[in-house]
Amino acid sequence: LLVFLGLALPGTQGKVFSRCEMVKILRQNGFEGFVGRTVADWMCLVKYESDYNTRAYNDNGPSRDYGIFQINSRYWCNDGRTPGSVNSCHISCSKLQDDNIADDIQCAKKIAQEARGLSPW
């Protein structure tokens, strides 16, 4: 798949995508029309959540947000520090901060599908 070219080199840490790269990735991964939202909606979300940076991190006190989609440790990933974490995406939060965003995409789509939109963000 084209989406993975240059995105997953073992041992590399983090990546800041350009706007054009991000649009291409979102289109290739079926975000246009997904849960009734456009690629533009998703671009806005990614821009303001992480500024296209896979290393983005935000400490909210009882939980934390990780990666390009700022996925929360309370419900979606396990960081080993969030009491009562549900880990609905069955992923370590640290995996959401590497340069391979395939797992981030899978989790973000699960979140949006369960919410029927972008309300969790």
TrEMBL record:
Q: Which CDD domains match?
A: LYZ_C
Is this entry keyworded Secreted?
yes
By its UniProt entry, which SMART domains does this protein fall under? LYZ1
Q: What processes in GO biological process is this protein linked to?
A: cell wall macromolecule catabolic process; defense response to Gram-negative bacterium; defense response to Gram-positive bacterium; killing of cells of another organism
Alphabetical list of PROSITE patterns matching this protein: GLYCOSYL_HYDROL_F22_1 (PS00128), GLYCOSYL_HYDROL_F22_2 (PS51348)
Which terms in the Gene Ontology molecular function aspect does this entry carry?
Answer: lysozyme activity
Alphabetical UniProt keywords: Antimicrobial, Bacteriolytic enzyme, Disulfide bond, Glycosidase, Hydrolase, Secreted
Q: Which InterPro entries match?
A: Glyco_hydro_22, Glyco_hydro_22_CS, Glyco_hydro_22_lys, Lysozyme-like_dom_sf
Q: What is its main location?
A: secreted
A Pfam entry, by short name: Lys
- Can you say where in the cell this protein is located? Secreted
Glycosyl hydrolases family 22 (GH22) domain location: 89-107
Of the GO CC terms on this record, one is: extracellular region
Please list the reactions this protein catalyses: Hydrolysis of (1->4)-beta-linkages between N-acetylmuramic acid and N-acetyl-D-glucosamine residues in a peptidoglycan and between N-acetyl-D-glucosamine residues in chitodextrins
Q: What is its EC number?
A: 3.2.1.17
Family label: Belongs to the glycosyl hydrolase 22 family.
| Entry protein name | lysozyme
Q: Which organism is it from?
A: Notiomystis cincta
